[in-house]
From TrEMBL:
InterPro entries: NAD(P)-bd_dom_sf, Sc_DH/Rdtase_CS, SDR_fam. Belongs to the short-chain dehydrogenases/reductases (SDR) family. It holds the Pfam family adh_short. SUPFAM superfamilies: NAD(P)-binding Rossmann-fold domains. The lineage of its organism: Bacteria, Bacillati, Actinomycetota, Actinomycetes, Mycobacteriales. Keywords: Oxidoreductase. This is SDR family oxidoreductase. It comes from the Bacteria.
Amino acid sequence: MKVAGKVAIVTGGGAGIGGAIARALAEGGARVVVADLDAAAAQTVAGKINADHPASAAAVGADVADADAIRGLIALAEKEFGPVDMYFANAGITGAPGLEADETAWDRSIDVNLRAHIRAAQQLVPGWVERGEGYFVSTASAAGLLTQIGSATYAVTKHAAVGFAEWLGVTYGDRGVRVSCLCPQGVNTKLLFPDESEGDGLGAAAAKAVTSAGEVLEPAQVAADVLAAVEDERFLILPHPQVLDMYRRKGADYDRWLRGMRRYQAKLLEQE
């Protein structure tokens, strides 16, 4: 799909990968609603886009795990730019390590990392089927294909996000709805490198696992990979190509892979 002339919504668009995707879309000729829990951050991204590409972006502060908030994003996009053609479900959170996450933490992770995708698809896909065209891009993680050392909530919900994206592609791929799933490893964002005052990162062992597994990419590079995949209508987006090799080794011998992951985890914990 060509992005020029399309209307897109990007969640988690106030920084990092989401902000870079929003800018790349505008540079490609799309009009973008930038959504983020941090309204000021979303406004900053939209303001910079509009400075270079006038009337190309709108910003809104929203909890995109909430169905009513998603409904509001769609209404804003339609009012400002027209019917939504593309939805980038990019917002995500990590979680406490081990089994320490309580019911509230699990519910929040499931809501943000999975149900936010489901709720957006429920509102958009029927209209796309009627129009014969639409594009849903899910930001999952390499953790959704492999796993995440440390945070169970992150590993489980990212696996679920991949599964939902696969299901969307299978169910609606022959009805005009295109689906891509982004599964990066290390990206230079607050998720990997949080501010010292914030406790929303992956945690020391998990962050070390990610940074030692390969190159830490800049968000703009990941965004370029996303738009290239959208243009080619490719499902799996792997900015770190080695993830595919790891995924193949996992599938070829699951028990060997699990043993290797346990050894890797023990090594990382020894270094703390």
